[in-house]
């Protein structure tokens, strides 16, 4: 993933972009990948690991109604996390992840491995849904890699 992270930081530098991430199911792994690259501090503003709903609400301004109606693992919450992060950090490219890495927490409508990744930029706002399989570690790794790819694709467009 180091090559991917390096390409991402270089692309952000080339496009005068700033980056921030709000992570739930990835638990800070995206931020760790980005900050492992020398010079990332030029474009990476920071991260909020918002595992608890209270943090999603209080720090990222996710409406309580969104959490109550759709739950923490939903497209609506992922989008609200990215939107809130943009307000808090002022970054041009804000990414958010939320999902169920397991091994517990799955339901009939939200199975193990369900992950939502949201991206908010000056040009676009979108959420992608993924269904990963494997162990907790594998799901977190796949979600982290997918998030980095989404961000790189957006910067390269």
Strand order of the largest sheet: 2-1-3-4-5
What value does the Rg take, in angstroms? 14 Å
* Tally of helical runs: 6
Please state roughly what percent of the residues sit in beta strands, choosing from under 5%, 5-15%, 15-25%, 25-35%, 35-45% or over 45%: 15-25%
Shape: globular
N-to-C order of helices and strands: HEHEHHHEEEH
Protein described:
It is built from six helices and five strands, in the order H-E-H-E-H-H-H-E-E-E-H. It has 157 residues and is α/β, with parallel strands linked by helices. A five-stranded mixed β-sheet has the order 2-1-3-4-5, with helices on both faces. Strand 4 and strand 5 form a beta hairpin. The chain starts with a helix and ends with a helix.
List the helices and strands and how they pair.
Blueprint: H1 2-14, E1 19-23, H2 29-35, E2 44-49, H3 53-60, H4 64-70, H5 75-89, E3 93-99, E4 114-120, E5 125-131, H6 136-156
Parallel strand pairs: 1-2, 1-3
Antiparallel strand pairs: 3-4, 4-5
Helix pairs in contact: 1-6
Q: Could you list some keywords that capture this structure?
A:
157 residues; alpha/beta; five-stranded mixed beta sheet; 5 strands; globular
Short account of what is shown:
The protein is an alpha/beta fold and 157 residues long.
